[in-house]
Design brief:
The protein is an alpha+beta fold. The protein is 30% helix and 37% strand. The chain has two domains: 43 residues; 132 residues, no CATH class. The chain has a five-stranded antiparallel sheet, with helices on one face. It has a three-stranded antiparallel sheet with strand order 1-2-5, with no helix packed on it. The longest helix is centred in the first third of the chain and has 39 residues.
């Protein structure tokens, strides 16, 4: 038997129109992928912004020459209604409640700070705060532990004066016994 030579298939070259069509398809696919990626990133940024607006955070400004800290919400759409403040037992037994005038007063803890500070003239102390506030017409509650900065200033009469200097967030989303949370952070110092 004779072997018949195999027939070669003719080579078909792509036309310019077909090359342009394939390139257009690739560009369209990449454009779709890029747009999808951009939309996902935009949605994530929007969700982070909404979550950031909903988070409650306070700042404390010095008032009455250090005798108090005026507490305000960072976000103006959050209106503080009431607060309950717990200090470590070593500084003050029991909590303090404020309504409509959120603040921390040095007089509430002055004796305890003088005893606990020893020779240190500056320091920080933990304060557990439960805040009831209104945002978007809804009443909400936030529980967190903040640190209050203080300094002691000598006086001739009545011993050292305690000045409050500021407030910073230590832990947010605290659940359970806030008095215990303040005591626990004080114990670490």
């Amino acid at each position: 038997m004779t072997d018949a030579p195999k027939k070669r298939l003719p080579i078909r070259w792509l036309t310019i129109g077909e090359i342009v069509g394939v390139a257009a398809l690739l560009v369209a696919g990449l454009s779709y992928w890029d747009g999808h990626r951009e939309r996902i990133a935009s949605e994530r940024a929007h969700q982070a912004e909404v979550a950031g607006r909903q988070a409650f955070l306070m700042t404390g400004s010095v008032a009455e020459h250090g005798a108090a800290l005026r507490l305000t919400a960072v976000h103006p759409e959050q209106v503080i209604q009431t607060q309950t403040v717990w200090f470590p037992h070593a500084l003050r037994a029991g909590s303090v409640e404020t309504t409509g005038n959120p603040r921390i007063e040095a007089g509430w803890i002055e004796d305890g700070v003088k005893k606990a500070a020893g020779k240190a003239k500056t320091g920080r102390l933990p304060v557990a705060v439960q805040t009831v506030y209104i945002q978007d017409g809804q009443t909400r509650t936030d529980s967190a532990v903040y640190e209050v900065g203080y300094s002691l200033h000598p006086r001739l009469i009545l011993g050292d004066r305690v000045d409050l200097e500021g407030l910073s967030l230590a832990r947010r989303g605290v659940s359970g016994d806030l008095q215990a949370a303040a005591d626990q952070m004080w114990g670490r110092k």
